[in-house]
Amino acid sequence: SPSLIKSKIRYESGFCGPDLYKIKTNPKISETGEIKFQMQERDPEESFIDHLKVFRVTHEKNREILVDNKYEKFYSLEKNKIEKAILPEQISINGKKAEPEKIFGKSFLEESNGIRLRYRQNVLLSFKGVKSGKNNHLILKVQERGWSPVAKTLFTVFPATRFLAFAFAGFVLSWFFGTAASILPFIILQDGNKSINLFYKNRNSFKFFGSVHPRMKESVELVSIPEQAISADGRVDLNLEWTRTHHLVSIGIIDFVEDKSRNYEIEELKLIKAIHNGNGKNHASLLGSRDLNYLHTVQGDTVDLVFRSQTNNDKNDKRYTYLFSASGFYTDLRPQYQISFKNLFWLLKEEIKA
Asked: What's the rounded Cα separation, in Å, for the pair 263 and 268?
């Protein structure tokens, strides 16, 4: 993780943009239009959160909302269009040929298998039948696997217990008010060293054109493919390079026309509460705009978020997707915030009692 000063300078100079995360499980809305989430700092790091947003997208049931790999925008695509992606005809894993249908799943929206590769391993893929001038995108279903069970246990025994305790408390509170809570892992400022880097073949060399940053849960992302990547006979050769252990479930190429008529409705929900467990204060005003005033969290901290929708009338013929946007930066956990092994079990015991 980067240092505090370096991270702050990078963020405030505009080097790092906001994150955009698709929430898989839709929360229920109370009669007053309130939606509740909980955000937790799970890793041994410090986060400085500048701004938070939640968007509610209303769209047709036969469509899926997908986010681009830069986390800047999203697309509303027909499900059958996604599932008809062009799949790779040839693959080579670390120099050894393999059969694509035995490696990758054919579905991007259903459960599938895939491959898990480690640092500096790579996959070469060949696609055929790709038409130029069609707004082609690489579609990938990926998941982060770059952690060891031992290291994760040492770092998250206490936070994970608090996470479960707050999840239970959130469920009871939300049930009382007739809503349901969603526990949302907060991901901010993706690390370039935790990505899958993408290269396309141009003549005799490969050129970088983007990267994806797998999450702890499976996510589907889109990456725009340069026209130079498509040969005259419709062939596309790609090289995917791992910088950390990740799981690649499915991969393909789709083309689509961006619908300028906006076949969806989008609402930005109003943040009315952001209660930090450390001081019990409401920091909603602090997170309402990107003004370089930060909410500071360390490992084990939680923030209970309450958003309000102005249009809480459910439409039976529509589907709802929620997008979470955040901006800020993170750093190494400084010594004064680290949990010692001596205190770890005492804190765990106290958390269980609570």
From this structure: 17
Cα 195–chain centre separation: 12
For residue 132, pLDDT over 70 is answered with yes
Answer yes or no: is pLDDT of 275 > 90: yes
pTM of the model: 0.76
**283 near 170, Cβ under 8 Å?**
no
CB 9 within 8 A of CB 337: no
* Of residues 225, 30, 256, 220, the one with CA closest to residue 107: 220
Report whether 56 contacts 267 (CB < 8 A): yes
Question: What angle in degrees, to the nearest 10, is found between the helix axes of 341-353 and 149-176?
Answer: 20
224 with 237, same domain? yes
How far from 172 is each of 26, 36, 37, 185, 308, CA to CA, in Å? 17, 12, 13, 20, 19
CATH number at residue 123: 2.60.120
Examine residue 19 and state whether it is found in any structural domain, yes or no.
no
Q: Nearest CA to 210 among 127, 258, 139, 119?
A: 139
Residue 33: pLDDT band with limits 50, 70, 90: confident
What domain count does the chain have? 2
